[in-house]
Amino acid sequence: MAATELINSINAAADGAPLELEESERAELLAACDRLKGKLGNPFEATLRFVFAAHQAMALRVAIDMKLFDAAASSGDIAVEELATKTGADALLITRIIRILVGMGLFIEREQGTYAATQNAGAYVTGSPLKEAVIHISSYIPILAQLPEYFEKYGFKNPDDAFNGPFQYAIAFNVVMGISRMNRGEEWFEFYLVQEKLQVQAASKPLLVDVGGGLGHDLVALRKNHPSLHGKLIVQDLPVVINEAKDLPQGIEAMAHNFFTTQPVKGAKAYYLRTVLHDWPNKQAREILGNI
Questions:
Q1: pTM of the model
Q2: pLDDT at 166 over 90
Q3: Is the terminal CB of the chain with fewer CB neighbours within 10 Å at N or C?
Q4: What is each CA distance from 103 to 95, 130, 154, in whole angstroms?
Q5: How much is the pLDDT for 178?
Q6: What is the end-to-end Cα distance of the chain in Å, rounded?
Q7: CA distances from 69 to 78, 80, 144, 149, 211 (A)
Q8: Catalytic residue selected from 55, 136, 257, 278
Q9: Helix or strand or coil: residue 267?
Q10: Measuring CA to CA, how many Å separate 43 from each of 46, 48, 53, 224, 282?
């Protein structure tokens, strides 16, 4: 195929009406585009893309923090001066940040000093799970920056101790709490035979202990879907987290507990650990389970 014909075909697909594709077709098309980009690109272009990825992540994070996406949402074309008024941020800083976002496909520059948010920009307004994910994940970039120094110091060995890893090397505390709970698909209590298998004889008995359960979101959802369950539902986490677990529904108890110490609730029907063990090496995972 001649280059001109290929360019015209790609432009027609990009500029035309949205394609109606199955998810598998969409994935295959994206993969084909990536292969073509890799075939046409050169090492210099690839290097620029690799090393400036962190700059893009930080531009996205700063734009979220200054509520730039909120200000631009549903506004159509909007001038930098108006964005500055809405956000309270400096107009020159907004210009510098938004130029990066243009390159990321989140804004379009209509004319000098005037921009419009694209459809994807709506994913980062207040209340969006992806916005919260960006805030959480971008907080790890300072840790990533320390990885070369960490691995050189420890002889380029794979970290095997959760208390002496890159995180502890870069930051002076050991606990990072929470990430917004995005849509995780089917919940366990939607397919597990809760009414048949998750039962205790008396309402005073512990039914389920959510170990490392954060603010109790999972137990709240369980109670909502199975309001007739008998027994205590207990969410456990560190005091700094449990202190924020407020207004829990009746029947759900919040308990401060460090899962590296002996489990204080004995004889529960089930102990539930979600997104806990995968965060720890085998050494600490065995210790957590051994304390239950």
A1: 0.59
A2: no
A3: N
A4: 13, 19, 38
A5: 41
A6: 64
A7: 12, 13, 27, 36, 36
A8: 278
A9: coil
A10: 5, 9, 15, 54, 39
